[in-house]
Design a protein that fits this description.
CATH superfamily of the largest domain: P-loop containing nucleotide triphosphate hydrolases
Number of helices: 13
CATH topology of the largest domain: Rossmann fold
Distance between the termini: 21 Å
Number of domains: 4
CATH class of the largest domain: Alpha Beta
Strand content: 15-25%
Shape: flat
Number of strands: 11
CATH architecture of the largest domain: 3-Layer(aba) Sandwich
Structural class: alpha+beta
Largest sheet: 6 strands, antiparallel, barrel
Length: 481
């Protein structure tokens, strides 16, 4: 970003008489850094520039999302900030560290005022009419939309008036990824690749791979085959040192194909040596990118729990939802619940027996209709069809009762602790974990990283490259990422 380029938000701020504005200028990025502090100061500045550019872009394009929220009248104060407890009924999904603005009026003569706020402690839950504020019900009465409880952190002296009433809060941007990038830079000192990143020219061996002989391959061209074979050989080596392999190529040159083939070969070679499959972490910057890899792996590797996709199923490609952590852990919990008894078990058995009886009757009626039509007895067929329609009503009623009872059965058995334990179990059993860079820093993944040394550890981590990005997206230039 050059000094003479300004965003619409800058012009708006300038028009309000502000004396100083953030200076946007090119920041030099070196190829080596004398200390970790120099590296951190450079890339932290780049990340902050990216935040500023993203905020300007969101304001300029009008892509913000507003929701009506009840702000409770009991704020708390902590380290110079005010914490506002909020509730909203809105289909808009918010997450921790989202940046918001709160709009309110100070007087009738003045325009509405806006203050910045950051969302924390976001929770979703179901609700009933009697337990929700009537003012929120006016904003949305759809019972399928959960109530969102969250906290907005603002500066202590920016508390809006008339707390305990309805406000309009607008999400300006998601800051979760930025916070994780800053934490990642701060934790670089603990990485075995820290010195390699700071002084790459001093560690040329970390970027060198052994040469391999040319070979024919049905799916790879010679260059792709060399990349796969050399990286696979290095990863599968008995005496491995931390290394970085960079695979570069424009769109359409088969990088994803190389990644998939490399994973297949690493798995096979590790299994031949150890008798078990390794654990491989695959990351990409976007949902589309990681879904493309996961989808290809699903077609190549036939095992139910081999591949797990971490993330929110609603953001995934429909083809990979079945291997999402939510879907796999939920299905496993349902399987376990079907084998376990509760106070609902006897009702479930009764409803199941009744459903089987009705299904047998339905089968006989369908056969009778076909037979009547075959014999040309249309009147008889129509009479049987009416009986079938009534029977279908009974079948639907029994099935709904069964589903309701089964959900109660699940609630009795599957507490939050059980769900967390099952999710962790599915992750521990996975051999290939696919995740966006953002989701990779979840608490579940951190727990997996910190498992005892006797547990299965990641053999390697593969990070798909970023697509072409606008010049203001500077996070792609951070070697630690």
């Amino acid at each position: 970003m050059f000094k003479d380029e300004t965003f619409p938000i800058l012009n708006a701020v300038q028009g309000k008489g502000y004396k100083s504005l953030p200076e946007l200028s090119l920041i030099p990025v070196g190829s080596a850094y004398s200390t970790l502090e120099d590296y951190c100061s450079t890339f932290t500045s780049l990340i902050l520039h990216e935040v500023w550019a993203t905020l300007c872009e969101n304001v300029g394009t009008g892509e913000s999302q507003s929701l009506t929220s009840l702000i409770h009248p009991d704020p708390t104060f902590c380290n110079g900030f005010t914490l506002l407890r909020c509730e909203a009924l809105s289909p808009t999904r918010i997450t921790n560290i989202d940046l918001f603005s709160i709009t309110f009026n100070t007087s009738r003569q003045k325009p509405p005022k806006k203050i910045f706020a950051v969302a924390e402690h976001v929770r979703y839950r179901s609700w009933e009419i009697g337990e929700i504020d009537p003012r929120l019900l006016k904003t949305c009465q759809d019972p399928n939309i959960p109530i969102t409880s969250f906290v907005l952190r603002i500066l202590m002296y920016h508390v809006p008036p008339n707390l305990g009433s309805i406000f309009t809060v607008t999400r300006i941007s998601r800051l979760n990824t930025v916070f994780k990038q800053i934490i990642q830079i701060a934790e670089l000192a603990r990485s075995p690749l820290c010195e390699v990143i700071l002084h790459p020219s001093d560690y040329e061996d970390a970027f060198k791979l052994d040469a391999v002989l040319d070979d024919n391959h049905a799916f790879l061209n010679p260059i792709q085959y060399k990349a796969v074979a050399s990286i696979t050989k290095e990863v599968s080596s008995a005496e491995r040192e931390p290394k970085v392999a960079l695979l570069q190529g424009p769109p359409g040159t088969g990088k994803t194909r190389v990644i998939v083939e490399m994973i297949k070969r690493v798995r096979c070679m590790h299994y031949e040596t150890t008798g078990c499959y390794p654990c491989i972490l695959v990351c990409a910057p976007s949902n589309n990118a990681i879904d493309e890899i996961a989808n290809r792996l699903m077609n190549e590797i036939d095992s139910k729990y081999d591949i797990v996709r971490i993330g929110v199923p609603a953001t995934m490609n429909p083809d990979v939802v079945r291997i999402s952590l939510d879907k796999l852990s939920g299905g496993k919990l349902r399987d376990d619940a079907a084998k376990t008894t509760s106070s609902e078990s006897r009702y479930l058995l009764t409803l199941k027996a009744e459903s089987n009886t009705l299904q047998r009757k339905k089968k006989k009626l369908v056969a009778a209709i076909l037979n009547a039509n075959k014999n040309g007895s249309s009147d008889e067929a129509q009479m049987i069809e009416k009986k079938l329609a009534k029977l279908q009503v009974d079948i639907d009623k029994v099935e709904r009762s069964y589903q309701d009872r089964f959900l109660t059965h699940l609630e009795l058995l599957n507490t939050q602790n059980n769900l967390r334990a099952m999710r962790q179990k599915v992750l521990s059993q996975a051999n290939i974990i696919c995740s966006t860079l953002n989701s990779c820093r979840s608490k579940e993944m951190e727990q997996l990283f910190l498992e005892p040394a006797s547990s299965k550890r990641f053999l390697c981590c593969i990070i798909d490259d970023r697509p072409s990005v606008p010049s203001q997206n500077l996070s792609c230039r951070s070697p630690s990422e």
